[in-house]
Design a protein that fits this description.
This protein has 14 helices and 15 strands. It has a 6-stranded antiparallel β-sheet. A hairpin with a 2-residue loop joins β14 and β15. α7 packs across α8.
Length: 374
């Protein structure tokens, strides 16, 4: 799917914005505080029903409104489309009000879960906060891994939901103190079963993701020859998950929660045997983050799952001109739709492949003015 039209109402300072004829690469430029990032937030709201800034819904909604709304129209990218046969995609709409309630519609029909929405518009985000993928807590890296597994393995989400439910019930029983062996065993068995399935899905995905990452990084940063990804499953790899739960039963009951499992999994990015977050420069770290995001887009395309839509906020930050060119060349090669922000349009014109057309949007005080294609 690719967005062809976008309507934004009351997202921060974007009161009423309507964009038509969106292209493959869409550049939003303007001064700081003009609303450029809010456009990216709006697209993220359309694909995930929330902002990527992690802020509350109330701060996302313009202070003069009771809710914010984003509508998008998509087109299907297909071989037939290239031959002049157009295939309309489905309209998508998301509304959030100040109480946090979300209304989601796909194809005119209301849906109940964000998972259905995420499947319609797979998004990859590259912002200043993306450094947390390397330097932050393991949760961000698990989220990154699970995003990919979700889009390529349809059984994963159901298993993940069952695992979360079993973990919650088991931990409640452990905290309660007085529990029957039969009740605890039932939830432990379900936890072991779903946790094992989650781990197998993650490992299978990781095994095909890691080579894509190395291929991308060989182009982005060939000097980082000893860069590699490692997967940690969250318990002793010599044990089955059922055995790990049995072995940790005493400590679990003493401390009132489940210690081992997929909820402790992590991806380690290593450089010459050391954590990349501790040894690489800021610029090199941004290249690695870009490499991780691009690798997922490359893998999805190769598996025939679909293409990601990339939301990129201030690409030139932390990157020199030469590396910005390399990132843009790789993005262009993926043929994915890109929405990118900058202060001066020349910052992107100078680094994007000259053969690729760019749709330029000027943003000023919450107003987005037309577009001009290069």
């Amino acid at each position: 799917m690719a967005l062809t039209q976008l309507q934004i109402s009351n997202v921060r300072n974007l009161l009423h914005v309507k964009l038509s004829n969106l292209q493959g690469v869409n550049v939003f430029f303007g001064c700081n505080g003009s609303g450029k990032t809010s456009v990216l937030e709006s697209i993220h709201l359309l694909g995930m029903a929330r902002s990527f800034r992690g802020s509350s819904v109330k701060s996302l909604i313009n202070h003069s409104a009771s809710c914010c709304t984003v509508f998008g129209t998509t087109a299907v990218d297909s071989p037939a489309a290239k031959e002049g046969v157009t295939r309309a995609g489905v309209p998508i709409g998301v509304q959030r009000n100040r109480s946090g309630e979300a209304q989601i519609k796909i194809g005119g029909k209301q849906v109940r879960t964000v998972a259905e929405l995420a499947g319609q518009l797979p998004l990859q985000i590259i912002t200043a906060d993306s450094f947390g993928l390397l330097t932050g807590a393991p949760g961000a890296r698990r989220q990154y891994l699970d995003w990919g597994v979700f889009h390529v393995e349809h059984q994963f989400f159901g298993q993940w939901q069952r695992f979360q439910r079993s973990m919650k019930q088991r931990n409640n029983l452990l905290r309660r103190g007085k529990i029957t062996d039969e009740e605890l065993s039932a939830w432990t068995r379900d936890l072991a079963q779903t946790g094992t399935a989650i781990n197998e899905h993650r490992k299978a995905y990781f095994e095909i993701l890691a080579p894509c990452f190395k291929e991308i990084m060989a182009k982005l940063a060939p000097s980082l020859v000893e860069l590699e990804l490692l997967y940690r499953q969250g318990w002793d790899r010599q044990l089955t998950y059922s055995e790990a739960l049995q072995q940790g039963f005493v400590s679990d009951t003493e401390q009132g929660y489940t210690h081992s499992g997929p909820q402790r999994a992590d991806i380690r990015v290593m450089s010459a045997g050391h954590l990349a977050a501790e040894t690489l420069s800021r610029g090199q770290q941004k290249l690695v983050v870009c490499g991780l995001k691009l690798a997922q887009g490359m893998l999805m395309a190769r598996l025939g799952v679909g293409k990601c839509t990339y939301l990129i906020d201030d690409l030139p930050s932390e990157l020199d001109n030469a590396h910005s060119i390399l990132v843009c060349e790789l993005l262009a090669s993926l043929k994915s739709q890109v929405f990118i922000t900058c202060i001066d349009q020349r910052e992107i014109r100078s680094v994007w492949p000259p053969s690729e057309g760019l749709a330029m949007f000027h943003v000023e005080q919450g107003v987005v003015n037309g577009y001009a294609e290069q």
